[in-house]
Amino acid sequence: MIASDTLDRAPSAPDAKVHKRNLAGMPEDKAMLRAAADLTRDIAKARPEIYWPDMLASAAVGYLALYGAIATTQPAVTVLLGALSAVALYRALLFIHELTHIHRDALPGFRFGWNVLVGIPVLIPSFMYEGVHTLHHARTRYGTVEDPEYLPLALMKPWTLPVFALTALLLPIGLLIRSAILVPLGALIPPLRTLVWERASALSINPQYRRRKPEGDFARMVFWQELGATAWSWLVLGWSATHGWRPLLIAIGVLSATALLNQIRTLVAHLWENEGEVMSVTGQYLDSVNVPPPAMFTALWAPVGLRYHALHHLLPSMPYHSLAECHRRIRAHLGVSSTYEGANYSGLFPMLARLARSSMRRGA
Question: Which of 70, 92, 254, 336 could disulfide-link to 58, CB 3.0 to 4.6 Å?
Answer without folding.
Answer: 92
